[in-house]
Amino acid sequence: MIKDHIVSSYDIDLNSLKASIARMAGMVDDEIAGAIDALLKRNSDEAHDIVQADKAVDALELKVEQDATTILALRQPVAEDLRQVLAALKISNILERVGDFAANIAKRATVLNRHSPSVKAQPTLPEMARQVRTLLQNALDAYLDEDAEKANDVWMADKHVDELYNSLFRELLTYMMEDPRVITPCAHLLFIAKNLERMGDHATNIAEIVHFTVTGQAIEEARPKSDDTSYAMVVPPASSGPDEDANDKN
Amino acid sequence: MSPIDISVTAPKSASSGAGGVPKMQAKGVNVFYGDTHAVKNVTLNVFKNDVTALIGPSGCGKSSFLRCLNRMNDGIQGARVTGEITLDGVDINSPRIDVVQLRARVGMVFQKPNPFPKSIFQNVAYGPKIHGLATKHADLEEIVAQSLSKAGLWDEVKDRLDAPGTALSGGQQQRLCIARAIAVDPEVILMDEPCSALDPIATARVEELIDDLRGNYAIAIVTHNMQQAARVSQRTAFFHLGELVEYGPTSQIFTTPKQERTRSYITGRIG
Question: Most buried pick, A50, A118, B98, B140, via CB within 10 A?
Fold first, then answer.
């Protein structure tokens, strides 16, 4: 561990930045858990609370921004101190985005609750949420412990979330093709899954920032990815029998 | 080519010294003041068109090292310098070297502005006169005007060249000293804390001037102000307890220093 600064208030300032990030991370984690819970339990009140709670995360992001600006202006940090301040700025920004995704899931939960529960919230979603929360928690631990190794593990692990997203994407497409009446709920579920998948990406972004903060070097290799849904294309099965004839007549 | 042809050389890019031939080379330099070993086995090159900043806490040997580069330690009782220092490949401690000539080629600007108790004109003209750089008064006038212009002082003093140099403000006096140093057409300029007695505006002027001068000279500057080192230099050398701990591109030293001691010092953890 590195020594303390000669000016001890400098350390207090830097530590308070970290504390704010830790608080933000805790709030965002609660948001994700709550949003998925509200979705599974069809609890619109809880979903509404989550949307409201996101404002506190936004406020905390603003605080980190102001505190970081003050440190930059008053202390002119260099080397790892500078990277610490930049990391706090960027990670707070990322956590704010992740909070937005969680709030968005909560909003979609309220919409889904208005539909009949014809399409069950897929069991894959809570599993995705669990994995994403673990990734984010580990990324944040890596940040707080200044542990580049741990950050690398997060960076490598996101592909599992991508794989879950992939299979859910295909599953939901199938439901929609089978029954057009479930397109609305399925579309919402798809966006929820996409939100979770983006959260996983953001966990890897935090991991990259931590790696740079600790080592001063960017991670250079290409990240393993498993999300190939951007290239997915579903061709509807060719219609047959009377329908085809009907089409021909039209 | 006239010997005072100091303004026509096109400034070269900052990186030109990177792979180039060092203007001055110091190899295994030690400085002793009596029993005190002030500089320990320092090897460091200074390049033309580059500003090399020497940083480190008080007593780390940076000023002692700087003073070796134009043999300013010669006059200090009990001081002893070992190791090799070359200027364009020639040993500056060799008996064939005239130390007065050496100090004309390797000029120095000190922490406190120290103009001669003479007129502004005489302050700048003195060096060129004793070094025989100008025979006619018109030539001398030309050198004085050019030097004051290059030091960024001409517009402020051109109407009162007969006023005493000591009547100028601190920042103007320091720029007068820089004009005096460049009037003898040096190749290397050594600066020992040139801004520590100046206010922020005067400091900014001198820093701007250092950046301009870099186009024509090799500059080595000792500074306690790390932000200043970061602003004005292309290379930074960190001294600690008489040792050269780390020497590298300024951008690297201030972002990703390799040595633990450098890191601790520049981030304010050791002093």
Answer: A50
Mean pLDDT over B144-173 rounds to 93
CATH code of the domain covering residue A216: 1.20.58.220
Residue B147 distance to chain A (closest CA, Å): 35
Q: Where are the alpha helices (DSSP H) in A76-123?
A: 79-114
Across the interface, whether the CB atoms of A80 and B263 are under 8 A apart is answered: yes
The verdict on a CB contact (< 8 Å) between A79 and B271 is no
Q: Which residues of B touch A (CB under 8 A)?
A: 226-227, 230, 254-257, 263-264, 266-271
Determine, for residues B267 and A217 on separate chains, whether the beta-carbon distance falls below 8 Å.
no
Q: What is the largest CA-CA distance in chain B?
A: 57
Print the domain residue range for A126.
8-228
Q: How many domains are contained in chain A? A: 1
Whether the per-residue pLDDT at A183 is higher than 70: the answer is: yes
Task: Check pLDDT > 70 for residue A3.
Answer: yes
pLDDT tens-digit series, residues B98-108: 999 999 999 99
Q: Which residues of chain B are within 8 Å of residue A82 when distances are taken between CB atoms?
A: 255
Whether A5 and B226 lie within 8 Å, measured CB to CB = no
Rg (CA), chain A: 22
Which residues, 6+ apart, have CB-to-CB distance to B197 below 8 Å? Answer: B111, B112, B113, B170, B174
Give yes or no for residue B219 having a pLDDT over 80: yes
Q: How many C-beta neighbours within 10 Å does residue B158 have?
A: 13
Cα distance from B252 to chain A (closest Cα, Å)? 9
Q: Which domains does chain B have, with CATH numbers?
A: 14-266 (3.40.50.300)
Nearest to B264 among A3, A82, A216 (CB): A3
Does B263 sit within 8 Å of A79, measured CB to CB?
Answer: yes
Facing residue for A6 by CB, picked from B227, B255, B268: B268
Query: Could A79 and B264 be called an inter-chain contact, meaning their C-beta atoms sit closer than 8 Å?
Result: no
Q: How confident is the model at residue B8 (pLDDT cuts 50, 70, 90)?
A: very low
- Mean residue pLDDT of chain B comes to 89
Over residues B38-67, mean pLDDT: 95
Predicted-assembly ipTM surpassing the 0.90 threshold: no
Tell me if A216 and B255 make a contact (CB, 8 A cut-off).
Answer: yes
DSSP alpha helix (H) spans, chain B: 62-68, 99-105, 120-130, 137-150, 154-157, 170-183, 200-213, 226-232, 250-255, 260-266
Domain-embedded: residue A246: no
pLDDT at A223: 74
**Amino acid code (one letter) for A47:** A
- Using a pLDDT cut of 90, give the percent of chain B over it: 77
